[in-house]
Amino acid sequence: MSEANTIESQTAKAKKMMLWFGMISITMTFAGLTSAFIISSSRPDWLDSFVLPTWFTISTISIILSSVFFQLAKIKLDQYVRVSLPENINIYLQRNNVNIFLGLTILMAVTFVVSQFLGFGEIISQGYYFTGPESSVTTSYIYILAFLHLAHLFAGIIVLSVVTTRFNKQKYEKNKLGFEMALIFWHFLGALWIYLFFFIKYFS
């Protein structure tokens, strides 16, 4: 292995380690918050009968679909990279397929965000605010968990936009590391929300 390849391999390992460290840190943050959620559920003022708005179910479906579409984009990217003849019409079809699935991923991500805010609107319409006399411990925790996840998801949407831009600038034909890391992070965000969704449904 040449020195250049060795440096590239070491750089890739370092970037992946940073990504995993970041995801572990995020996981620990949410583990602490959900632990506090469980402890608080024993309080006498806890809303035992609170039901999550249907919009949160829709957002869960949309983020699952976004992960599916992103994975399909990766499969199409692998197929595109394997095409070696520029004059082959398949290369253009494969590029279009990658862009279609990346576009669907972003669309589902936006759907997730919109449905989340519609869900918050429904909670507010029930008379539960984040703070103040019309708030409750139960809904305040839900606001914190959902908004904190949304903050990380916004970062994920920025990453998606960068990935789409870089793909169309043909940056992943020789090195797909950035695409692969974005895919891992997006799957992580999806899995994290699924965990939060069922956790809140069970304990609220």
Task: Give a verbal description of the structure.
- The structure is a single chain.
- By secondary structure, this protein is mainly alpha-helical.
- It has a domain at 68-204.
- The protein contains five helices and no strands.
- The chain has helices at 3-40, 54-82, 90-125, 137-168, 177-203.
- The radius of gyration is 21 Å and the shape is elongated.
- The N and C termini lie far apart (56 Å).
Which keywords apply here?
5 helices; 204 residues; single chain; elongated; mainly alpha
Gist of the model:
The protein is mostly helical and 204 residues long.
Q: What order do the helices and strands come in, and which of them pair?
A:
Layout (H helix, E strand, L loop, with lengths): L2 H38 L13 H29 L7 H36 L11 H32 L8 H27 L1
Helix pairs in contact: 1-4, 1-5, 2-3, 2-5, 3-4, 4-5
Strand elements, count: 0
* Biggest beta sheet summary: none
- Outline: elongated
Number of helices: 5
- Element order: H for helix, E for strand: HHHHH
Radius of gyration: 21 Å
Low-confidence stretches: none
Oligomer description? single chain
Percent strand equals under 5%
Task: Give the class from helix and strand content and strand pairing.
Answer: mainly alpha
- Mean pLDDT equals 88
What gap, in angstroms, lies between the N and C termini? 56 Å
Helix content: over 70%
